Amino acid sequence: MPRTVKEEVRRKLLRPLARRGGGADRRALIAALQRLDDRALGEDILAQVREVVSKDRESRKSDAWKDPSTASRFVALARALYASRRISTQEYVYFAASPVHSVHEGRWLDGQYEKDLEGIHNAMDELRKAYGLSELEYWPVGEAPEEYARLDREYSAVLDRRFLETLREFGLNELGDLCERNTEEYDRLWERGRRSVFYQGELIPALRDVVIRYEEDARRAATAKGYSAAVTLLGAGVEGLLLLRCLRSKKKAGRTARELPKRFRPRYPDDPTTWNFDALIEVCFRAGWLPPVASAVADYNPAGLAHLLRLMRNHVHPGKHARDRAWIETDERDYRDAEAIYLILLFTLGHIRTRTEEKVA
Length: 361
Hints:
Layout: H1 5-13, H2 26-58, H3 68-83, H4 89-109, H5 114-130, H6 146-169, H7 173-181, H8 183-198, H9 203-223, H10 227-248, H11 250-258, H12 277-286, E1 293-294, E2 299-300, H13 302-313, H14 318-324, H15 332-348, H16 355-360
Antiparallel strand pairs: 1-2
């Protein structure tokens, strides 16, 4: 049925003000399908490699930890897990590089690098003797003579070079390049992967890390003028701060949760990680963890500020945004308000201390 003149005018008047940028053409669609194909193929590879690794475990030798063939199978498993999206980038760095670290360490202990290291090692021994140190004595960290420190750096440089060669020997060129180009980033990814394996139950330290990453990502988003993302992240950060406070006094938080009005009361009062934003705010307020904050102009209620930031964050839901703030963009002023609220709550909840408090501590 043809549109009336009135309908056509209305359609043109309400054309989208925001335009979709690049990345939504046919080439992008093909690239997206290829990415999903890689993921599907990773599932098939994973099944095959798992079988190989399982058989390898059955016939494991005591020195298998430094066996290159064993390492190759585990590197292949890590690749398949990563391709099938079973592990994160950080876990991939840890799982793929760990067996290579073992092979590298085994070669070092077995003397395979002696040709490169012998001269440096002898010079270090002679220097210790010259200073009256026995074979098993060493200087405390940071107190060695500069000449010895230089030799120690040379020794480490040889081992680092050999490790890079070993990574590439096992086809981990991307990790070798990363480690050579940005060792700090490689170490950061490795450590996150290691902690994800061995410290899954450490909820409070992990949650602190999450909150700090939200803060950093919010700043990055704001720098790129992604203010909607920045406000959403700060809202999530405040939710994390409130959760941390409840976890630090879990019994009191649970008692307070049970006394909340029905509309706020969480279903599982003994597990703050299951509470919604509303419940976290109300528990912290009623427990006395959100006292008023005074300025030269006014007294502020941190619970009210937390609710305000919660409402700002909730505009991440498209239906709510279209209903409550139709056509309105989240701008820098909104972000600065959210940032101010975040900092006040950071202080109120004890994550920022005054200079006097720091001296007392």
